[in-house]
Design a protein that fits this description.
Chains A, B: GO terms for molecular function: acetate-CoA ligase (ADP-forming) activity; ATP binding. Chains A, B: Keywords: ATP-binding, Ligase, Nucleotide-binding. Chains A, B: InterPro entries: Acyl-CoA_Synth/Transferase, CoA-bd, Ligase_CoA_dom, NAD(P)-bd_dom_sf, Succ_CoA_lig_flav_dom, Succinyl-CoA_synth-like. Chains A, B: This is Acyl-CoA synthetase (NDP forming), alpha subunit. The structure is a homodimer of 471-residue chains. With 471 residues, chain A is α/β, with parallel strands linked by helices. Chain A folds into two domains: 208 residues, Rossmann fold (3-Layer(aba) Sandwich); 163 residues, Succinyl-CoA synthetase domains (Rossmann fold), CATH 3.40.50.261. Helix content of chain A is 42%, strand content 18%. Chain A contains 16 helices and 19 strands. In chain A, α3 packs parallel to α4, α11 packs parallel to α16 and α14 packs parallel to α15. Chains A and B meet through α5, α8, α11 and α15 of A and α5, α8, α11 and α15 of B.
């Protein structure tokens, strides 16, 4: 909302407060204030935690006070988990206490026609210089500080993706989903009504945050008159970090659904599409794709792309064809392998394999074939990036293969080429997938998703002018 | 390849032989003949099993003989797991033995330039009236008979989907994947070089097979001059059962990759696309989508669709918008909910919910809200089908919800409306997913996949003239 440095410092307190207080804390885990406090405590937040509750002296080991003003310490960030009607009073108290930022969980404001109540809260906050996240949010997560001030999932898988969401239910569901899928997050922020802190403010924080490599955004609308600022700010951010947006309300009827959901004037999708493009923001078509792309970006060490085209290495011709189709549809240029390089690839495979691109090691290949073929691709200046594909077969153990690929990439990927892997199979293959991802190699279950993610990285490389392909 | 009834009876022996012999059986599980025998034994094939091995008297409890001719019993189906050069000799023996059908596992034929050897095998087989699957295949699975005559995954999840694949490596990987994902198969067949038995022959079997509700097809090419027959045969099959094809080689470069992989003259994709459309075959864009759609078809009790449009029930506005977008993009007509029905929906939700379509029960809904809303949708004649969506939240247990939805559908879905469910969340949600699928309700992880699958069902209903929507 505002550009000055002081405000940026204050927003930092949302993620890195020295102390946080849960107003409406409870020992009842069926209450929102109970879950938030429990998530803070169980995640071992790297700061002080206080509870505000009219009657308790201590909840879950956390000291509890009847009011904010009773806390015998500075409080930088409060999470307000009480009914909407009582929020203005608490913000008044927070002002007196010198609180910097308030996350207002309660719904019952603008989204249900109570713009008056929301305005009242905003005016009090302004008077004291308090920044507000919300209202109508599930809270905020910032894993580098072990901060989980949400009533969402308790466990978060740590990583480099920051995800900002305008839909609360979606965000909570995705907290659970990313944890299960072991997709690593630096942060997840519920933006709710965006009465003060909005996507622009938050993205500015993540632009500088060294714990975040890629920003994901679920948007339904920007707020009236925000388009120009969005383009301006995000154009700068995307020069430093990839931003991937899922803008819902793309269809005519979807636009109407947005209006009924958030009350945002959704505006025509063409306008958003053009704004996102101008700002250098990549646009995903569903949440799974958003996280597929984000994983690729988060695991990549460089966005500089050289050479003359991408190479696919596979143990199955069918998967090779699928990847080839996907490359063309996603605008990923495949290398035309010259004779000399073909000779090199041929040495890595059974005699009936194919050194063309896709490089087909055949279903009878072994770990050594993969390692050798990957080395050839890594060492050739012609190769821009590599997608390695494995379809589970009886005679090639996916766990051994995963270890082999991870080791080879660590030792030989000196030029930091983008590499991703397809692992299509069952339980054993899933174990291989986990080994690769623990080693920083992004893995996808089918060729199309790997290629789409590689193409997204290539697209981002072009956006920031780091793609130097000689095609 | 041939149309007469006798041939159809013989192809039945591929799936339902009274006895099967593995030629090249071994106790060494690092050999193909070892894995095939082991898979047959461990799956407890409902028929007799014999091994052919020069030295053993018994392998894995199965009686073993030096030659086919030594087996003191009729043998209907042989699986030939010996090197290509020795195959003609075995087929000659099989002819003398009166074998009906031979699955030839070995590669080393047409696909590597040895069309001469393949022709030799075909000629011997013709002489004796033996039908051939392959060569260059991983085998055949038919779960109603507990037949797993492959060197692929040992465990198969039983169900109603038959999957025919021209790519071996892909097929084996998908055996593992479908088992892990609990996608139920009646059969999986590796088609390899299709020197005799081809997709058309196999599909004719599944057309009549009462254990199969939907046929999935991974195709790279049909074989020269087969287009007309394909359209003719599949036009009949699709009147009875949905067929979903993934035709790879869609792009210009993909077409070239097919040629190098199978040696098929791939032909232009437009030609295939038109043939598939004429034949009433649905075309998926990747294997995951193929199985998503197939699952929807396999679980549906009826393909008749009435009413005035589909309804989405959700606990999150964001997911509702995504589903709305997907409906428009996939041609799935959503119901404009009339005032009277809105009143009914309103009774099922908190006051701040929305009775429009998507019907938004809000993040504060409980199991009872879902049950009541689903009942309203099931009981309204206006509703053509229902997508129920759940994003994991702290205060609504997905397992309880899954049980509630399953029970409600069992009791109240008298008109057999198509219903599917989105379950987006973590481990607990996954448990809910499994409960629903065990109860015959297809579940998807994100809105777009559920809507795409519902739209595929609607499209099939239109193809067979059973969609009576009054829009």
């Amino acid at each position: 909302m505002s550009n000055n440095n002081n405000d940026n410092l204050i927003i930092e307190k949302l993620f890195k407060p020295k102390s946080i207080a849960v107003v409406g804390a409870s020992r009842n885990l069926e209450k929102i204030g109970g879950v938030i406090l429990s998530n803070l405590v169980k995640n071992k937040f790297n700061g002080k935690i206080y509870a505000v509750n009219p009657s308790a002296k201590e909840i879950l080991g956390v000291p509890s006070y009847p009011s904010l003003l009773d806390i015998p310490d500075e409080v930088e960030h409060i999470v307000v988990a009480i009914p909407a009607e009582k929020v203005p009073e608490i913000i008044e108290e927070a002002g007196k206490k010198g609180v910097k930022v308030a996350t207002i969980i309660a719904s019952g404001f603008k989204e249900v026609g109570r713009a008056d109540l929301e305005e009242k809260v905003v005016n009090i906050a302004k008077k004291y210089g308090i920044r507000i996240l919300g209202p109508n949010v599930f809270g905020v997560v910032y894993t580098p500080m072990n901060l989980n001030a949400t009533f969402g999932a308790e466990h978060i898988h740590k990583g480099k993706i920051a995800f900002l969401t305008q839909s609360g239910a979606l965000g909570i569901a995705l907290m659970h989903w990313t944890s299960m899928e072991k997709i690593g997050l630096s942060s997840i922020v519920s933006m709710g009504n965006m009465t003060d802190i909005d996507a622009i403010d938050l993205a500015k924080f993540f632009e500088k945050d060294e714990n975040t490599k890629v920003i994901g955004l679920y948007l339904e609308g920007l707020g009236t008159g925000k388009g120009h600022e969005f383009i301006e700010v995000f154009s700068e951010i995307t020069k430093k970090k990839p931003v991937i947006a899922l803008k819902a309300g793309r269809s005519e009827r979807g636009t109407r659904a947005v209006a009924s959901h958030t009350g945002s004037l959704a505006g025509s999708d063409a306008v958003y599409d053009s704004a996102l493009k101008q700002a250098g923001v990549l646009r995903a078509s569903d949440v799974e794709q958003l996280f597929n792309w984000a994983k690729m970006m988060a695991f990549s060490e460089s966005f500089e792309i050289n050479g003359k085209g991408f190479v696919i290495i596979t143990n199955g011709g069918g998967m090779g064809v699928m990847a080839t189709d996907a490359s063309e549809f996603n605008g990923l240029p495949l290398l035309e392998v010259p004779e000399e390089l073909k000779k090199e690839f041929r040495k890595t495979m059974p005699w009936f394999g194919s050194p063309n691109n896709p490089v087909d090691l055949t279903g009878q290949s072994n770990v050594q074939n993969y390692i050798e073929a990957i080395k050839v691709a890594l060492e050739s200046e012609l190769v821009s990036g590599i997608t390695v594909m494995y379809g589970e077969v009886a005679f090639l153990d996916p766990v051994e293969l995963a270890n082999g690929i991870a080791k080879t990439l660590k030792e030989y990927n000196k030029s930091r080429k983008p590499v991703n892997v397809v692992m299509l199979g069952g339980e054993k293959t899933k174990m291989g997938t986990e080994i690769l991802e623990e080693n920083g190699v992004p893995v996808y279950p089918i060729p199309e998703k790997a290629i789409s993610s590689m193409a997204a990285l290539y697209k981002y490389s072009k956006i920031i002018g780091k793609a130097n392909l000689k095609i």
